[in-house]
Amino acid sequence: MDWITILSTTIKSAVGVETVLYALAAIGINIHFGYTGLLNFGQAAFMAVAGYGLAVTVTVMGLPFWVGIIVGLVAAAVLALLLGIPTLHLRADYLAIVTIAGAEIIRLVFRSVAFKDIFGGSDGRRGFGTGFQELNPFPPGDYGFNLGPIPLFFAHWQLWVMLVGWVLIAVCCLIVYLVMKSPWGRVLKAIREDEDAVRSLGKNVFSYKMQSLVLGGVIGCLGGFIYGLAYGSVQPDVFGTETTFYLYTMVILGGAARVFGPVVGSMLFWVLLVLLNGTLSEAVAAGVITFIDANQAGALRYVFVGLGLILLLVFRPQGIFGDKREIAIDAR
Amino acid sequence: MHAETTANDRKAAATAVFKDMPREPGVPKPDPILVVDNVVRRFGGLTAVDVEHVEIQRGAITALIGPNGAGKTTFFNQLTGFDTADSGSWTFNGRAMNGVPPHKVARNGMVRTFQLTKALSRLTVIENMRLGAQRQKGENFWRALVPAFWTGQEDEITERADDLLRRFKLDAKREDFAGSLSGGQRKLLEMARALMVEPELVMLDEPMAGVNPALTQSLLGHVKDLREQGMTVLFVEHDMDMVRDISDWVIVMAQGTVIAEGPPSTIMSDERVVDAYLGAHHDAPLSDSELQAQLQDAEAELEAEIEEETQK
């Protein structure tokens, strides 16, 4: 078994592109679910409209890359308004139903045959990353170092995406930290506890829920940009509902309503997934495990991730950063 | 000593106002803070609230009593905007309040508490209190990003909150989660939090429900305090001892309407109130023959109705 490769890919995944893009989207979910108590099950749609906004603007309309970014950001804000206006007056569960349905509608429109000329059907769009890579300050080559015998190297284009991504994560975490310790954040947390009490104290609950939905949606859409820019392409099925559920897993793993919860959650999630995948497929290739083949190993890692999540919720329901006292109050 | 005299003055003033007031439902008050006209709320075929006219005197403690299902809480919900009345109008300080959303009602100075206490469990006691303050600069998203805009105001709010916590003897619990408080302490916290809004009219929905007797006395004291500080109190309550002890005037509701008003000392001997609580014929046992006669009447009525229907 090639332990060097397994360890190398595992360590790299802790800071890699996937971790970055999921962390950004999970920060958005943390604002919705962790702080405000909004059950947004359509975060993948916010990523999708951003990724496609960028892709379509550049490839179909031939406009520069930064125009695509603006289109994507506006699309995410508009999507938040569209989902929020009819549902935020209603009970929390309606938002969950509408967001999950809205996200599927958006995915199906992107992959539909009727709009193949615009969105490219199930193949998606590719070839819009050049504008971003032209800004890359790193000359072509591999960058990194050897940790003992373990090589840790990234290609220049990966490094550029990761640098931008981690800067965005830092900025988003700073914003979350600032607003959540302010009176604005206090209103959001109070809404999570009891909307009617907040209304009785003279706060416009609908407006705050909408602000939360837009903020989390716009931060989440940054994850969609990172996906599109890192892979140079977008496909509709990347933005399925399971993406949203991975994001929830990360938020709970790291600890809901904690500034760094979603970031650490995303790192842990990908480290575990890559480690399991590497170990299982190496073990199959080396003949150590004989009762499954390589394809089954890929699926089996999700079984273990699910098992891990169950164990986490049983033994540490507050997540890595959570406060056990808060969970105890919930149980009353 | 001085504070005590003014306190007694307020009590005396309130008592004097109500001294010779007629006991009729909807009786006009000399200085009403809240005037309600023809408020109706129906749930399907059930008329939960149908209040023709009622006035709440400024600076007094008014109790709203009535048997279970009389529509007291629904009436509260209409007035504070938490539920939409089917029709009717009401004014607070002369300003029309029908159709106004709950947060604007609160901003206008009419603040309520809830029958089922709504402590914000996973916020600390002090954060619960701070939330009540109005016109906070830091509640705007953009200003929230720059602490310099709001820290000064936050300090003032915290000071005011700490004063109130001391008064309500919750200062030892300052940093605890509100969810870890006992039921009575939550009631105290909810009342203190409502005061952070600086209301003119405080509406308490069953402030004593589920509070142990030791805390009851302290809660009663706090409600009386509100009047002494110049606030008006309207509260719903079942405990008649408490109503007699603290209220200046009592309004009785039954089956959605106001059936009587009067001072707390005599209201429970009012015939209409006794009827509402115990039934009109509670002391007149029906004999068998009377029962038979009533049944026959009812049957005859039904038959006539059926005949009418078939003829159509």
Largest sheet of chain B: 6 strands, mixed
Please tell me the total number of domains of chain A: 1
Number of domains of chain B: 2
Class inferred from helices and paired strands of chain B: alpha/beta
Number of helices of chain A: 15
The outline of chain A comes out as globular
The major beta sheet of chain A can be summarized as: 2 strands, antiparallel
Task: Provide a descriptive summary of the structure in words.
The complex is a heterodimer of chains A (332) and B (312). Helices cover 71% and strands 5% of the residues of chain A. The N and C termini of chain A lie far apart (50 Å). Chain A has one domain: ABC transporter involved in vitamin B12 uptake, BtuC. Chain A is globular and about 65 Å long. Chain A has 15 helices and four strands. With 332 residues, chain A is mostly helical. Chain A has a two-stranded antiparallel ribbon with strand order 1-4. Chain A has a two-stranded antiparallel sheet with strand order 2-3. Chain B is of the alpha/beta class and 312 residues long. Chain B folds into two domains: 2-119 and 181-280, Rossmann fold; 286-312. In chain B, 41% of the residues lie in helices and 20% in strands. Chain B has eleven helices and ten strands. Chain B has helices at 2-18, 72-79, 102-107, 125-131, 141-144, 151-167, 183-196, 213-228, 240-246, 271-278, 288-311; strands spanning 32-43, 46-57, 61-65, 87-92, 95-96, 110-112, 201-205, 232-236, 249-254, 257-262. In chain B, the strands form two sheets. In chain B, strands 6-7-8-3-9-10 form a six-stranded mixed beta sheet, with helices on both faces. In chain B, strand 9 and strand 10 (257-262) form a beta hairpin. In chain B, helix 4 packs parallel to helix 7 (183-196) and helix 6 (151-167) crosses helix 7. Classes of the chains: A mainly alpha (332), B alpha/beta (312). The A-B interface holds A 175, 178-179, 182-187, 189-190, 192-194, 196-205, 211, 215, 325-326, 329-330, 332 and B 80, 82, 101-104, 106-107, 111-114, 118-123, 127-128, 130-132, 134, 136-141, 144-145, 147, 150, 154, 177, 179-180, 190, 193-194, 196-197. Chain A: InterPro entries: ABC_transp_permease, LivM-like. Chain A: Its main location: membrane.
